[in-house]
Amino acid sequence: MARWCYRHRLLVVLLWLAALIGAGAAATSAGSDYANTFSLPDTDSKRAYDLLEKAFPQTSGDTDTVVWKVEDGKVTDGAVRSRMEPALKKIAGMDGVGEVVGPYSGERGAAQISEDGRIAYAQVTFNKQADALPKELVQDVVDTAQDAERQGLQVELGGQAIQRVEEPPTGLAEMVGLGAAAVILFLAFGSLLAMLLPLCVAVFGVGIGDFGIQLLSHGTNMPDLAPLLASLIGLGVGIDYALFIVTRHRRGILRGLDPEEAAMTALNTSGRAVLFAGGTVCIALAGMLVTNLRFLDGVVIGTTLTVVLSVLAAITLLPALLGLFGTRVLSRRQRRKLAAEGAETTSEKTSGLAARWSAQVQKRPRRTAALALVVMAVLALPVLSLRLGTVDQGNDDTTTTTRQAYDMLAEGFGPGFNGPLQVVVEGGDSAALVKGIEATEGVAQASALPPAHGVSLIQVVPTTSPQSKETSELIDRLREDAIPEAGVTAHVGGVTAVSKDFATVTGDRLPLFVGTIIALGFLLLLLAFRSLVVPLTAAVMNLVAAAASFGVLVAIFQWGWGLDLLGLGKEGPINAFLPVIMLSLLFGLSMDYQVFLVSRMHEEWVHTRDNARAVRVGLAETSRVINSAALIMVAVFVAFVLSGNSGAAMAGVGLAAAVALDAFILRTALVPAAMHLLGRSNWWLPAWLDKRLPHLAVEPAEESERPAPADGASEDRAGAGAAGTGGSAVHGFVRDADGGPVEHASVTLLSKGGGRRLDSVASLADGSYIVSAPAPGTYLLTVTAAPYGARAQRVEVGEEPLVYDVELRSGEVDVVG
Which parts of this chain are annotated as the region Disordered (predicted)? Predict the structure, then answer.
């Protein structure tokens, strides 16, 4: 498939362009119909809503508020009334508005004026819930109310419907994320065209995904958070997946392969890993369905669609673009060196820093693991005070009308006024219940509306804000004490009660969800690496990363540390849906890094049966790409703080923290340190289980990426040579007279008489090397490195890999045979 896409590159690019333009045109003409359906069956708040909708159909829709405040005088002054009453009358006459109750309508209205007379509000009740209202109607309400403003008279609006029309400008977070990713890619590749490749893949995958979500919103309940989360995840995985493939492609060209063969090898190795990683992300997202939270169904559909499209773009569009760019994916300096010196001297080298760090982890695994655990434990401590809930308009940006209306109502009528509770009484006398509610701790006021169809509605205003823990406790007191004591059948509803029920159900179902995705991850890694310890270690690491990342979220969003710096309003509870979304995404993304890291270790282990070397080489050769990929994801995720959506901002910060901790602490420190301590048991699998498990190869051997031994090309990846040969190996260290490592030494394995070269490699920064032997026997091993001399030694290779260290001295020549 990759070869076909490479050779028909213009057709492939045109097909993707047509898909993007077609999806965009269809989505633009159809518009969107997002629906935030938080209600849950078999909950008290849902039963309250059903009764309210049946008995008060004209008031069962969304209730929003128009709030006004005067700088001087009172809201009852004639100059103020002459501006506000006509506006409220015009709003009441709009099609879709059930009723408007203002402060100028008798005794009931007088309660809608603050004690100091400077703030008043009117309640606008629509005939539908906020999600079902046309935005044009809501915008007309906003414009009509705010047209009444004048100097000294401020008019603001609040409510769910009003918030929907105050969506921030779309695309800003995505553009900032792409810009940050572009800078990181350019620094990593040194080539403008190579930088553009991952960005193009991400743009096509996310673009078509967002248009598809917009179209799907007409056929299913799709929350307006879905496209934001899909963009966030799609940009991260799309750029990362393309980065892995382009890195492998560039390495193939530097080793002497022509661009087409390099692209085929890259897609047949890293492309397979991308398919595996993308599949694990989709499976992790689908794990959210076990919670049976219908609100998340749209999130699962939207994010999964975008991830699938990003993977398809990486394995079809990317090879086509590689065909268009040819060798220009290399920097000018690399192309000049390749033309002048050939493949042997232009191989990409493992960075000295990565190799030195890998050697340091091997040298002090206990200290490294202990330090990493301490850091993660400290960051995880705040999670002990985690409180799930739902943020409200008090978390909106201070420039929005919803936030200003929220603050004005809190100033004039108390903080609990922004989240009134609705106690719906089914039959019976509500008078006794009203008295009981008024006497309940935490209630500021309670008032009953005239009954209809045997149903009474009691509006309850708490003394605390909707987000506070005390309000949640008040709902429990009403349900457990006040209502049973009154001897009536009643249910507590309203937005605040719905949010509490949603958080309760989410918390109850979270253990099932966590168990499902951990078990799934264990099974996938068991099949991939045929080990019990590796997947068990990964499961523990995922839980550690989740705890630490949620600790960061609690500290920022619940405790308020740094919220002013982020411009995200005030502190509050953690969104109830966020743990499910974050855990599923963290599972999928961390699997990418785990597979990329451990697959290289596993390859080295199969080749040498030396666990210490396998862990050291695997970490040295993969840490740079893992860190680059993680930096890109962190940049993309943090950029969603600019989205203006508190839920997306919270998810962005949480995922950025999770990816950073996972890549920079767990995968580059704690995981390799733990694997050094565990030794050979890392790769243990009972023989009976090994026989029964199907074989799953994440990446095939890189046979086509390896030049024939006769061409003299050296390799920078110690150990690649022996993969798949069926023979044995010689490995060890090249050191100087003082015991220091010798980097880039040429190590060659020759036939017994020295007439035929069998394998050749360059030593890594820590001096390590490995060459493959086709079969047990006697061979000649030669080692040369400037300014040192050359050494040659006969070696006897048996069935097991031979460990052989070489010491080089300046000016020495040691010729054997």
Answer: 700-726
Same domain flag for 238 and 156: no
Please report whether residue 416 resides in a domain: no
Query: Rounded distance, CA 35 to CA 224, Å?
Result: 7
Q: How confident is the model at residue 785 (pLDDT cuts 50, 70, 90)?
A: confident
CA distances from 498 to 37, 38, 194, 495 (A): 10, 7, 49, 5
Q: Which amino acid is at 388?
A: L
Q: Are residues 19 and 128 in the same domain?
A: no
- Rounded distance, CA 625 to CA 628, Å? 5
Do 733 and 692 share a structural domain? no
Per-residue DSSP letter, 116: T
The structure tokens 């393309």 sit at 242
Q: What is the pLDDT of residues 749-759, one digit of tens each?
A: 888 765 677 88
Nearest one of 737, 729, 731 to 758, comparing CA atoms: 729
Pairwise CA distance, residues 648 & 484, whole Å: 40
- Contact predicate 626/618, CB 8 Å: no
* pLDDT (0 to 100) of residue 567: 65
Kindly give the residue spans of alpha helices, DSSP state H, lying in 560-699.
Answer: 563-566, 578-608, 611-638, 646-661, 671-678, 687-692
Domain annotation covers residue 161: yes
Q: Nearest 5°: CA angle at 457, between 451 and 460?
A: 145
Query: What is the tens place of the pLDDT at every residue in 10-46?
Result: 999 999 999 999 999 999 888 777 776 665 778 888 8
Give yes or no: residues 259 and 157 share one domain. no
Give the position of tokens 């200003």: 404
Write down which residue in 278, 310, 343 finishes a domain.
343
Residue 527, both tokens: 């099949």
Judge contact between 569 and 403, C-beta under 8 A.
yes
**Kind and range of the H or E run holding 813:** strand 813-814
Flag whether 181 is in a domain.
yes
What 3-state DSSP class applies to 565? helix
DSSP state of 170: T
Q: Are 791 and 782 in contact (CB under 8 A)?
A: yes
Ramachandran quadrant class, 711 (left: phi over 0; alpha: psi -120 to 50; beta: rest):
alpha
Please say if the pLDDT value at position 422 is more than 50: yes
pTM, rounded to two decimals: 0.73
Instruction: Let me know if residue 236 belongs to a domain.
Output: yes
- Express as a percent the part of the chain with pLDDT over 70: 90
Phi-psi category of residue 278: left, alpha or beta, with phi > 0 → left and psi -120 to 50 → alpha: alpha
| Angstrom distances, CA of residue 530 to CA of 123, 514, 593, 644, 735 | 64, 23, 18, 45, 35
Instruction: Indicate whether 218 and 303 sit together in one domain.
Output: yes
Domain match, 182 and 162 both: no
Q: What is the DSSP string of 738-803?
A: TS-B-TT-EEEEE-TTS-SEEEEEE--TTSEEEEEESSSEEEEEEEE-TTB-EEEEEEEE-SSPEE
> Cα(407)–Cα(396) distance, rounded to whole angstroms?
11
- Give the CA distances from residue 294 to residues 389, 440, 813, in Å, rounded to whole numbers and listed in that order: 17, 34, 75
Given 166, 189, 214, the domain boundary residue is 166
Q: Is 577 helix (H, G, I), strand (E, B) or coil?
A: coil
Q: How many domains does the chain have?
A: 4
- The three-class DSSP label of residue 114 is coil
Start-to-end Cα distance in the chain: 50
Residues 613, 283: Cα–Cα separation, whole Å: 33
The answer to whether 647 and 575 have CB atoms below 8 angstroms apart is yes
Spatial CA neighbour of 779 closest among 712, 723, 727, 742: 727
Which two three-digit tokens encode residue 179? 């810009």
Residues 4, 67 share a domain: no
Distance CA 812, CA 796 (A): 23
Record the tokens describing residue 522, joined without a space: 């264990």
Q: Are 149 and 286 within one domain?
A: no
DSSP tally for the chain: helices H, then strands E? 28, 19
Domain that residue 520 falls in: 351-386+494-700
